[in-house]
Design a protein that fits this description.
Helices cover 83% and strands 0% of the residues. The protein is mainly alpha-helical. The chain is flat.
């Protein structure tokens, strides 16, 4: 029993080394990728500044570069706020339509009509008469 446990622990440790080795390699590759992208971004900013300085002058070119960097920073902050938002503010999943709301609709309509009749009886009567007039008129066309 003890021998089986030791063999299991040895295999687990060996597998853990493989996983950490892969994880370490992945982290190193991500860091190198980030460094090269940062170098490319800095080179693009410097090249854009030089190009703009040639056309509009050094001052406005620096303002344009600083403004675009600020805009990118604000966009990244908004994206970070959206990603890290609490679950209470997260979008709620849309529930599929079921038969329950459809079966409750006549009861809701009846209660709304009861309240409308009690609150404004003449206005409700006028709306009902107009709806009846439009409902009977829709199927009749005048002959030419």
């Amino acid at each position: 029993m003890l021998e089986a446990l030791l063999v299991y622990l040895g295999e687990t440790q060996r597998e853990g080394r493989v996983v950490t080795r892969r994880l370490r390699a992945t982290i190193i590759l991500w860091v190198l990728t980030a460094i090269f992208f940062l170098i490319a971004f800095v080179a693009a900013v410097v090249a854009g500044s030089i190009y703009l300085a040639h056309h509009v002058g050094a001052g406005p070119a620096a303002l344009v570069v600083a403004g675009s960097a600020f805009l990118l920073g604000v966009i990244m902050l908004v994206a970070l706020a959206i990603v890290k938002r609490p679950r209470a503010y997260a979008a709620r999943p849309v529930a599929p339509l079921t038969a329950a709301p459809l079966t409750a609709a006549p009861l809701a309509l009846q209660s709304l009509l009861t309240l409308a009749i009690q609150a404004r009886p003449y206005a409700t009567l006028a709306v009902a008469a107009a709806a009846g007039f439009l409902a009977t008129r829709a199927g009749t066309k005048k002959p030419k």
